[in-house]
Design goal:
By secondary structure, the chain is α+β, with helices and mostly antiparallel strands. The chain is 27% helix and 31% strand. The protein is built from two helices and six strands. The strands form two sheets. It has a three-stranded mixed sheet, with helices on one face. A three-stranded antiparallel sheet has the order 4-3-5, with no helix packed on it. Strand 1, helix 2 and strand 2 form a beta-alpha-beta unit. The protein is elongated.
Length: 114
């Protein structure tokens, strides 16, 4: 379950920002998770809850933004929604499709009441 290591990485990043900004607590952590990032979102939610216990994130609200997959065809130029990696272009059938959205996995913001 690599979601646990992702959750630990999020906690480490939040703790680093708490130290840098001399914060006392964290109210909210907002994360972007692309649907093509290979992350099981329910497992990530549970993992975050587990690693947050007895930390600055314990009472923080976790806001998860699910980012749809989007591909751009290198042959015909069509931009379209994709559900999985390596999806062919629905117009021309080309496999020269570049993923332009949906692989994100990042902490977007950390909010605190100081």
């Amino acid at each position: 379950m690599h979601e646990l290591s992702i959750a630990q990485g999020i906690l480490e990043l939040v703790e680093e920002q708490v130290r840098r900004r001399s914060l006392s607590s964290v109210e909210e952590v907002e994360i972007d998770v692309g649907r093509l990032a290979g992350v099981e979102t329910q497992a990530l939610t549970i993992a975050i809850e587990c690693v947050a216990r007895n930390t600055v994130m314990e009472n923080a609200r976790i806001v998860r933004n699910d980012i749809e997959g989007e591909g751009l065809c290198g042959d015909c130029g069509r931009c379209f929604v994709i559900e999985e990696l390596f999806a062919p272009c629905p117009d021309c059938g080309s496999c020269a499709v570049r993923v332009v959205k949906g692989k994100e996995l990042r902490v977007k913001s950390i909010l605190s009441n100081k």
